[in-house]
Amino acid sequence: MLDSTDAVSRIAEAMDQAWHELLAADRPQLRAICERDVVHRVGVIGEHGWAATIESLHPGIAWHAGGIEIDFFRGGTVRLAGDGLVLIPSVVVGHIAAHLEDPWPRTLVYRARGTAALWGEQETVPQPDALTALVGRARARLLLALDSPASTSHLARSLAMAPGAVGDHLAILRGAGLLVRARSGRSVLYRRTPLCEALVAGSV
Question: Which of 38, 64, 113, 116 has a 20 to 30 A CA-CA distance from 125?
Fold first, then answer.
């Protein structure tokens, strides 16, 4: 097949068919998961810096002496030389992929947080008594579910709650300084503030 004159067109046709049969229907969810991950990583950068952000991508990645160490990379030392590093979240990689050869941009592809949502699974969220007593059962469930940024519709679906009720609770929690929101594409994603993180950490 690879030696035929129409090899490129046949491969392109096969990839197009695979896209439509396997992934196209889930595209909105695929994109939403990746967008939530990007918002989460931006928050980690702002609160904890680049080293913590890089190390949060995968257990096999470490920040050491101003460089990034990847325990499974066998390509020797690669110097970015000011070219930058592109980080790409993915819902299909199980490990991490590194593309570090010219002429392509230096890139790390990592597994996005929250990929379980792709399969429509309802999340099992613990409800610590202290947090529930402070903000109520429904709002405690929302705060615990926001371990990564999420939209109103995602929270409603994963927690089996009415979207309107979720929106009302999020507005109250945001007004209390426990949540912030940021637009990502067509979605508005909510994430916990440092104050909220402290409350959640103290209750679990």
Answer: 38
Query: Using CA atoms, how far apart are residues 117 and 156, in angstroms rounded to an integer?
Result: 12
Average pLDDT over residues 58-70: 83
Tokens of 102: 């010219």
- 22-41 in b/e form (b: 16+ CB < 10 A) is eeeeeeebbebbbbbbbbbb
In three-state secondary structure terms, 88 is: strand
Distance CA 19, CA 11 (A): 12
Pick the CATH number of 122-203 from 1.10.10.10, 3.40.50.2300, 3.90.650.10, 3.40.50.150: 1.10.10.10
Distances (CA, A) of 175 to 114, 168, 193: 26, 11, 12
- DSSP track, 28-74: HHHHHHHHHHHHHHHHHHHHH-HHHHHHTS-TTEEEETTEEEETT--
Looking at the chain, which runs of residues are DSSP E strands?
61-64, 67-70, 86-90, 96-99, 107-111, 179-184, 187-192
Q: Where are the domains of the chain?
A: 27-116, 122-203
Token couple for 153: 């519709």
pLDDT exceeds cutoff 60 at 81: yes
pLDDT, tens digit (0-9, with 9 covering 90-100), for 91-104: 888 778 888 777 78
